[in-house]
TrEMBL record:
This is ArsR family transcriptional regulator. Residues 8-92 form the DUF7347 domain. InterPro entries: DUF7347, DUF7351, WH-like_DNA-bd_sf. Transmembrane segments: none annotated. Residues 109-291 form the DUF7351 domain.
C-alpha cells in the first residue's frame, strides 16, 4: 500500500515551472468556458497542450501524471482540479505569495479602547492591517490583509473591504465554522479580570475561538460574539446601523460608553447575559459557556435595570 503523501512531497511537485504553468492554464481555460449550471467542464489533454509551453506531448503527459492525484483529478472527460489544486492555483493567480504593497496611512474615525481618542490611523504592517491610536500610540485593532486585497483597493475602499471581510469571517466563527479551512471552531469564554488585559480596557469577558484543524485563532470581546449574530444584526439594521459594515475600531465606542455590556449570570456551566443598547431599545442575548445564544429578547430601555 502506498504511504500517505506528505506536505513536503506535495510542494516538491510544484518545484517545476511547467507544472505551475499547467495549473494556470487549466484555471484560465475553465475561466474562459461559457458559464453553465453544471460548473466547470474538465479539460482534455489536447486543450491543455494548446495552452502550455511544453515542447512535446510525452513531456506534458509526464507532468500531468505527476500532478494527478494531488492537484488534478483525471476523469473520462479530462482533467479537473482537486481541492488542493483549486486552492493553490487561486493563491498563485492572486499573487498572494508576494508582500502586500505599501500604502500611505489612512485617517479613520473610531474609538481607542484605551484612551477614547476618536481620530485614528489605519495602515498595513506587513500582512496585518492595523489601526493605531496616535494619542496613546497603541494598536486599536488588527486583522489579516491579503496582498491581493491591498492591491485591489485603496483608501476608503480598502477600509470597507477590511470591515466586510472581518465581519463576515467573524460571523462564520460564531457559527463554529473556520473561515480558513471550514473545519470546526471551538470557543472558550474568558474572564478579562483573570487575564493580563489592561484595566483601562472596558471588556469584562472575551472569547478565544480556535480551529483544531488549521490552528487559526480568533478572539474578541464577548459582546462582539453576540453582536455578529443574526438577531443583533437585524436589531441594528432596523435602526439604521449596518453591523456587517462596521469596523471593530468603530464598534469600540459601544464598549467605551457602556452601551454594550456582558455579565456572567451562572457558573458551572457558565452562562452570560449580553445587552446591546440603541437609544431606548435594548437587545438582550443569553449565551451559554460556548458563547452560543440560548435566548434573545428585545426590551424597551425603561424596563432595563
Ligand atoms: Zn489611545
Ligand atoms: Zn481552520
Amino acid at each position: 500500500m502506498a504511504s500517505e503523501q506528505t506536505a513536503a512531497d506535495m510542494f516538491a511537485l510544484l518545484s517545476d515551472e511547467s507544472r505551475v504553468g499547467i495549473l494556470r492554464a487549466v484555471a484560465v481555460a475553465q475561466y474562459e468556458q461559457a458559464p453553465s449550471n453544471a460548473g466547470v467542464a474538465p479539460l482534455s489533454f489536447s486543450e491543455i497542450y494548446e495552452r502550455v509551453e511544453i515542447e512535446n506531448t510525452s513531456k506534458l503527459s509526464y507532468h500531468l501524471g505527476e500532478l494527478v492525484g494531488t492537484y488534478l483529478q483525471k476523469t473520462g472527460d479530462g482533467y479537473a482540479f482537486t481541492h488542493a489544486g483549486e486552492q493553490i492555483v487561486r493563491f498563485i493567480l492572486a499573487k498572494n505569495f508576494r508582500r502586500p504593497v505599501d500604502i500611505d496611512s489612512i485617517e479613520t474615525e473610531g474609538t481607542c479602547l484605551y484612551c477614547g481618542e476618536t481620530r485614528l490611523e489605519a495602515g498595513l504592517d506587513d500582512q496585518y492591517f492595523m489601526v493605531r491610536c496616535p494619542s496613546c500610540d497603541r494598536p486599536v485593532t488588527g486583522y489579516i490583509v491579503t496582498p491581493a486585497q491591498a492591491r485591489a483597493h485603496s483608501g476608503a475602499a480598502l477600509l470597507e473591504s477590511l470591515k466586510r471581510k472581518q465581519a463576515t469571517e467573524f460571523g462564520l466563527v460564531q457559527d463554529g465554522i473556520c473561515p480558513e479551512c471550514a473545519g470546526e471552531i471551538r470557543t472558550d469564554v474568558l474572564d478579562a479580570s483573570d487575564q493580563s488585559l489592561s484595566a483601562e480596557v472596558p471588556v469584562s469577558y472575551f472569547t478565544i475561538d480556535e480551529c483544531e484543524a488549521c490552528l487559526r485563532r480568533y478572539s474578541g470581546p464577548l459582546t462582539y460574539s453576540a453582536a455578529f449574530r443574526t438577531p443583533s444584526i437585524a436589531f441594528y439594521w432596523d435602526r439604521g446601523v449596518d453591523i456587517m459594515g462596521t469596523g471593530w475600531w468603530e464598534l469600540h465606542s459601544y464598549l467605551r460608553d457602556g452601551r454594550w455590556t456582558a455579565e456572567r449570570i451562572a457558573t458551572n456551566p457558565a452562562a452570560y447575559r449580553v445587552e446591546l443598547r440603541h437609544e431606548d431599545a435594548v437587545l438582550r442575548l443569553y449565551l451559554d459557556d460556548d458563547a452560543r445564544p440560548t435566548r434573545t429578547e428585545r426590551v424597551r430601555g425603561r424596563n432595563v435595570d
